TrEMBL record:
Membrane-protein topology: Multi-pass membrane protein
Protein function: Choline transporter.
An example Gene Ontology molecular-function term: transmembrane transporter activity
Coiled coil location: none
Descriptive protein name: Choline transporter-like protein
One Gene Ontology cellular component: plasma membrane
Entry keyword set: Membrane, Transmembrane, Transmembrane helix
Cellular localization per UniProt: Cell membrane; Membrane
Amino acid sequence: MNDSQSSPSSSSSSYDSAVGPPQANAVGSSSSSQGISPTVSRSWRDVFWLLIFMAHLIVVGFALGVFGLNRFKQPDRLNIDKYTMGFLENKDGLTEDYWSLYAVAGGVGAFLGWTWLLLLGSRANQMMKFSVHLLTTYLAVVSVLCFWVHQYFWGGAFAIGSALQFLYVISVIDRLPFTMLVLQRAVKMVWNLPEVTRVACISMLVMLLWLSLWSFGAAGVVALGIGDGGRWWLLLVLSVSLFWTGAVLCNIVHVVVSGMVFLVLIHGGRESNSMPPKPVMRSLQYAVTTSFGSICYGSLFTAAIRTLRWEIRGLRSKIGSNECLLCCVDFLFHLVEFLVRWFNKYAYVQIAVYGKSFNHSAKDAWELFQSTGVESLIAYDCSGAVLFMSTLLGGLVSGTCAAVWTKIKHPERVLMVGSTAMLMGMILVGLAMVVVESAVTSIYICYAEDPALINRWDAAFFAQISEKLHQRLQHRSARAREVLSHRIDDQVQAAVLA
């Protein structure tokens, strides 16, 4: 029986035997990756969430078609208005009036994403540095434009966003050199794996197909005469659906890239004779079958929790000696850390390699990092935030281009079209960024499980990352001693006063 005819369980067995867990889980271990053996069989995981996601796609897809067709070419094509005449204000508006505006956002987002992938090997680091510093300025400019068109709420929101972005960059400025070092190595890894960039390009095409339907329905909603409040609520529901769908597609790419990077590090190179056949296709097969439910489940929560974690960490480092505020922020910090234990992006590497459920993968990954001390290194690294800034900038550019054209053709719908178009652009650019983010997460997982893998791949990088880990562990120990000493002094003083 040849490979193309083999059953999923048999292909799973050969793949798992190539990427099972290393025997040692401590940084500095000298265990070899050659003694790897499978521990978890490939089976369907988190099937409930797979069914929920598929049902959601069917329901939302049907609703999008109805909203778009109802106002396509002629008002109220499907005779929906007769059911809303009693409580909604029905006006004339056509889907095609706004559909072309969303096409601008889709085109700009796809152009930025594909351009980033094309420049991945030669200009990626310069583009990321540029994004970090440009985002603050761009948010400020958008804020001014919002005030100019009398959108004071959104003008204030973008102004606050610009200020928070500036404060965040200032608070992590000392971490950026190490962050760029990690990103450089991740780019180096991905650039030598052209298969994964092709997967990202294909995923962008798939997303564009879904966006063509989504924007058709969204344009129909904008054309509805139900008042701004009703339109905004409908667009909010559609945007949440789009966010989940985009996150699922991004994390499919994440799983594919993670599986490929892990294999390359385990086997010592892409051209190694021990590499299993068609590794990218097998990773993709698992991502859209047995592991698809886990991807759907994790995609609901990981992005929001990760963003909240970045903001709380930045706020926590800037509080100073305000004990009351510090206590409140510490409570939020520990709450988010608890959530991170169950919802983190490193779970996707475990899903790609071992086929575990999402919560099991997230828990194992976080416990691995905490037991080896690598969690302190991850907390210091800002690569995820830098990539998110690039994604956000791409979304803002896409949204701005759509908003400018909307201002010319339908000035009363600028904010409505511009905000939803920004989400479209963010998803398309994010599909390009996830390639590098996946490589970063895989590098950290491999370093925690068996540092020899990183040493064999890039000895200079291994030395640099090990030195930084040693510094972070020393810093954490010194801080713990300082806190303990402070508490003992407070207790002694309290006892004396008593």
